[in-house]
Amino acid sequence: MDETPVLELRGITKQFPGILANDHIDFDLRDGEVHALLGENGAGKSTLMNIVYGLYSADDGEIAIKGKRVQLSSPHDAIDRGIGMVHQHFMLIPVMTVTENIVLATEPRTGGVLLDYSAARQRVLELSKRFNFAIDPDAKIQNITVGQQQRVEILKALYRNADILILDEPTAVLTPQEATELFAILKDLVAQGLSIIFISHKLNEVLDIADRITVLRRGKKVETIPREGATEEGLARSMVGREVLLRVDKTNARPGDKLLEVEDLRVLDDRELEVVRGVSFDVHGGEIVGIAGVDGNGQTELIDALAGLRKPAGGRILIGEKELTGASAHVRLEEGLGHIPEDRQRRGLVLDFSLAENIALHDYDKPPFSRWGWLNPRRVIERASRLLTEYDVRGGAPRTLAGALSGGNQQKVVLAREISRNPRVLIAAQPTRGLDVGAIEFVHKRLVAERDTGRAVLLVSLELDEILSLSDRILVLYEGQIVREFSPDVGEEELGIAMTGGRRGEAAA
Amino acid sequence: MVARAETPRWTGLGARQIAVGGILLGCFAFLVALPPITARAQWWPPLLGILAIGAGIWSLTRGARRPGWFAIAAGILGVGLGILATQASSGNLDYVVNWAPLFSAMFVFATPLTYAALGGMFSERSGVVNIGLEGMMLTGAFFAVLGADKLGNWFFGIVCAIIAGGLLALIHAFVSIHLRADQIVSGTAINFLALGVTGYFFYKVYGEQGTPGSISQVPDRPRLGFLSHIPWAGHFLYEVFGTLNLLIWFAFLMLIVSHIVVFRTPIGLRIRAVGEHPRAADTVGISVYGVRYAAVVLSGMLAALGGAYLSIGFVGSFNENMTAGRGFIGLAALIFGNWRPFGAFAAALLFGFSTALAFRLGQPWGNAAVLFQALPYVLTLIAVAGVIGRSIPPAASGRPYRKQ
Question: For labelling alongside B145, which of A286, A464, B5, B330 has CA 20 to 30 A away?
Fold first, then answer.
């Protein structure tokens, strides 16, 4: 390996209003290595990499590429110096073709004016062949899978001759199979001479892929260590700054009465296609039932139908003994349903409302919070401040706007509201999406605690780890149907295969 | 774009072709009752119309939704209008339905709409809604007259119009791009500003008498005399195309150029990228603000050209608020044409034709004429409401972009 790092950052500092996002961070990337950048959400990983990619400019510090000091004031500069970035939210235009997306801004031309589509297509084909990507250059982005979209993003960087590739939380949107494929691709890229920065907050995958690991915490660098000798526990400690319980501690379930029953449920999506196709299951008090599945197999519509946000096309939903198939969301809440929605920012909280108001969304109209049609703000705030303490919500008082909190703390507020209503059935849809280890630990503990008090918990998640560690029973949802039921000691491999329709090798198609 | 096989070709295409056939049949149901055929028997239009509706339903059930609905609509309209036409006296029919002047007038009325629609297309494709086209058009109309009058030549009039339209668009661009204001509000303000400014200067410069009659006008050139020597159709062709205004020909040129620029050049790819996903464009090094400024200013210039055609190309004078909503109809043509140059042009021709027809209808049947003038608006409402396959705007249209 070459001694000069291909990329070197010295004392990078970036101040945002109210927060020091990067505080004198040193970082170096060696030739041909995968260097993981690990940290909780808000630790400053993405900020640091956006500085390297020229999207932000640092307030202080210097950047050197291959030993030469550089100014990167726009993505254009970064691209010129061989830096490519795959963003967490893909920067692809859905209505355009793969080729158009890849060549955008560096288009080959004929006669200096016209876009040479066939030459562009040819180059994309060559690149895709060289790196074994199997991408149709003429497909529209909106018609290909997320895994393929990510490869298009990588191709975009390769097309621009990048030799430093930054991947921002690349596995967040992938299925386990797709993640495995991505790792194979990354190894191949390194073998072909690229150096890779891999941003993540997932410990296991960092240990899987990285040669060295740099941990950030609250804008500061904690340490840079080689993979050899690094452990999940040690990394979690440096990330969070305290001991973290990675495995969920739980006793065996003691199922009680049947509290949620779903019979032959059929639900249509927005395009009026039947995406939940005859689902039947039940959840008893005192157990957690996990619904595993790859994104887009009917989870969203199933949850919506259970919560009363979408009218089922057929089938029955019962809570306790009572049929609530056609009941409104409000009636369901009264009957003891708690719902932690998939998208906390759009459905869980009103971001422009205060925390106290958000917590009172369900029962603002009942005494003691209002009487004779008058709100009693004092009571609303009193209750909120009690719950905020109980649920360890940091960075927010009852009057703080919900939008000002971090994702983890927002989720705690949702949890506080839903659980404090004392529901019999709790639906948790992707309860830890986008949260970091500390917050995940909290949510998991709380869900298990609620199970132990006798509630029926339905967990819908795309995260295999979460499903495996929390569930007492696992149902696999595939193309709108429950295709398998597993006990929680099932292997990750077997579960993953069931999630993609049963047979091996189909996942990549 | 390059041909791609997304759906099995034979199913989509078959249903589509039948639907197109249905649309033509529907039109023909009306046409048989008109000169030069002038079938007087009442059963002709229903016969053809029912065939058209049948073809529409057939293709509708086989996936070609939008064309299918068009065929059904054409069938129904064809029957209705056809029966009406068989009822009318043939003298009136001969007067109203005089195809050559009708087509020629269609181009005249469609031209300002085409300019506005093309302008709107550039702006909206880059992600800025430009409801101020109307005001930019009006400004163009006035400054074209002012320039042609004071500088003595229509060419300078056009130059003045383009500059004025571009400057007005620059205001809209600044407010909606840099200040990130609501683009509808900004556009509306632009319209009122244009109305006020042109009205004020109009009275200030020309007072009560109005613009002088001696203003240099854009010539009706090139005259295509050779067309009349073509056997059989020569006379007709000459009457339609022989004496069109230079600015009409220029509109055709701009139409083709716009299509090539938007769909065949790197510049067009970048404009569309900025209008669909500005952040993605930004991350590959495209200046989102730069592209949007250029597109909005260009849209103002094109709209102003439409205005200039109205004042010094067609009428030869200026009146207060002489554009009378044509900028908005241009915008409607753009939406109706699904944000594509030729689509918008086809819509502009349709609107232009209905206006031309309404003018002729006005003589024998006044109230029918009024009804016809409403046709563009009804069609636009149908297109926007998505009854026959929704028109899909650029994804980022109307959304200000904030750099990180």
Answer: B330
pLDDT number for residue B78: 86
Q: How many whole angstroms separate alpha carbon B244 and alpha carbon B311? A: 15
Q: What whole-number distance in Å separates Cα of residue A157 and Cα of residue A163? A: 9
Measured between CB atoms, does B89 come within 8 Å of chain A?
no
How far is residue A431's CA from residue A419's CA, in Å, rounded to a whole number? 13
Which residue, A193, A218, A240, sits at the end of a domain? A240
On whether residue A2 sits in a domain, the answer given is: no
Helix axes B246-264, B266-276, angle to 10 degrees: 70
Q: Which residue has the higher pLDDT, B111 or B71?
A: B111
- pTM for this entry: 0.79
Domain limit, last residue, from A398, A422, A446: A422
For residues A90 and A187, membership in a common domain is answered with yes
Domain containing residue A450: 248-336+424-509
CA A411 to chain centre: 13
Q: Are residues A275 and A213 in the same domain?
A: no
Give the contacts of B45 (CB within 8 A, at least 6 positions apart).
B29, B30, B32, B33, B78, B79, B81, B82, B83, B85, B86
Name the residue facing B277 among A55, A93, A105 (closest C-beta): A93
Are residue A29 and residue A78 in the same domain, yes or no?
yes
Cα dihedral value A401, A405, A407, A412, nearest 10: -80
Same domain (yes/no): A408, A363:
yes
Which stretches in chain A have pLDDT values below 50? 1, 504-509
Percent of chain B with pLDDT over 90: 49
Helix and strand totals (H; E) in chain A: 16, 24
* Residues B28-66: tens digit of each pLDDT: 888 888 878 777 788 888 888 899 999 888 888 887 777
Binning pLDDT at 50, 70 and 90, where does residue B402 land? confident
Domain with A212 in it: what CATH number? 3.40.50.300
The reply to whether A462 and A363 lie within a common domain is no
Nearest to A278 by CA among A304, A305, A314, A225: A314
**Same domain as A228, residue A307:** no
Q: How far is B403 from chain A (nearest CA, A)?
A: 9
For residue A94, which residues of chain B lie inside 8 Å, CB to CB? 276-277, 395
Q: What are phi and psi of A166, to 5 degrees?
A: -105, 125
Q: Report d(CA A30, CA A1) in Å as an integer.
A: 8
Residue among B265, B280, B282 minimizing CB distance to A113? B265
What is the rounded CA–CA span in Å between residue B93 and residue A346?
A: 61
Number of domains comprising chain A:
3
